[in-house]
Amino acid sequence: MIEVKALTKRYGATTAVKDLTFSVRPGEVTGFLGPNGSGKSTTLRMILGLTEPTGGSVTIDGRPFRDRPRGLRHAGSLLDAHDVHGGRSAAAHLYALARGNRIPRHRVEQVLREVGLADAARRRVGGFSLGMKQRLGIASALLGDPPVLLFDEPLNGLDPEGVQWVRGLFRGLAREGRTVFVSSHLMSEMEHTADRLIVIGRGELLAAQSLAEFSARGDRRSVTVTTPAAAALRELLTAEGATVRGEGEQLTVTGLSAVRIGEIARRHGLPLHELSTRSASLEEAFMELTADSVQFSGGDPR
Q1: pTM of the model as a whole
Q2: Can you give the residue ranges of every domain in the chain?
Q3: How would you write the pLDDT of the chain (302 residues) with one tens digit per residue?
Q4: What fold does the segment set 221-279 form as a domain?
Q5: What is the CATH number of domain 2-210?
Q6: Which residues contact 139 (CB under 8 A, 6 or more apart)?
Q7: Rg (Cα) of the chain, in Å, rounded?
Q8: CA nearest 46: which of 85, 84, 19, 73?
Q9: Nearest Cα to 71, choosing from 5, 150, 4, 136?
C-alpha cells in the first residue's frame, strides 16, 4: 500500500506538488491522471525516494522506500524507458539489478519471457525500439517480485497488441493482491484498465474515486441543436436557465432536455434542423475537471 500525506514539493518560488493526500490500495489498479506538467512524475519520484519532499510524507507498506534495503523486492517501477545503458544487453542490465538487490539469477530469464523479450535477451538495448525499451522497463519492475508496482506512461511506444498485453498484465498483478499505480495523462488509457483514479492538476488533488464514481461525471447530458435561428434560440434557452455554447448554426445546450428545447422552439416558430442528445465521455469529463490545470493549451486551429 502507498500512503501519501500532505506531500509538497517546491523548487524555489514554484510549487510542483501541493499538499497531496491519497492512498493506493492493494488488489486494484489505480490510475494516476493529470495534464502534462501537473506534478505526476515528481510525485512518483518522491514516493520512490528519488526526490526529497519539501513537506509531508509518503510510505510504501508503512515505511519510506529509501529506508528499505534491496528495494526491488519491495517496490518495482518504470519511470523512464530510456534510462538504460545502451551498450548493455537486456540480460546484462537485469543481471546487474538482480545482483544489487540479491535477486536469484533465474528471475532474469523468467521476466524476459514474461515481457516477450526472451529472444532479444543478448541484444544491446541501444538498438531497441521504444516499445521494446518499455517492455524491458516493465521486466525491471517485475524482477524482485515486489508487492508494489509503479509505472509512468507505460503504454508509450507500444503497438496495439502490446497495449492489450500491458492492460492484462496490470489486471493480473492486481488480482494477485499487489498494489499497482499507473501514471498517465490520457483518460482513454485508464478507462480500460483502472479500478480507481487519482487525478491531480497543478500539483493539487482534484479527485480520488473509483472508476465507476468518476464515470458518473460523464453522465451529464447535452443537446446538440442546429438551427438558422441560433441567436434567437440562444437567448430563449439562456432565459430558461440553460448553458448554451457554440457558434454559427450549431449550439450545444446543457441544463434543458431535448423535449423542452423542441417545445420552446415550436412555441416561438423557430425552425430546427437537428435536435440530438448525447452523454459526455469519460475523456470529456476528465478534460472538464482539469481544464483550469492545463499548463500548455492547444494552439489555434489551422
Answers
A1: 0.78
A2: 2-210, 221-279
A3: 999 999 999 999 999 999 999 999 999 999 999 988 899 999 999 999 999 999 999 999 999 998 988 889 999 999 998 888 999 999 999 999 999 999 999 999 999 999 999 999 999 999 999 999 999 999 999 999 999 999 999 988 889 999 999 999 999 999 999 999 999 887 878 888 899 999 999 999 999 999 888 877 665 678 999 999 999 999 999 999 999 999 899 999 988 999 999 999 999 999 999 999 876 667 777 777 777 766 655 555 45
A4: Alpha-Beta Plaits (3.30.70)
A5: 3.40.50.300
A6: 90, 94, 111, 112, 114, 115, 117
A7: 24
A8: 19
A9: 150
Q: Which three cell numbers stand for residue 48?
A: 520512490
Residue type, 45: R
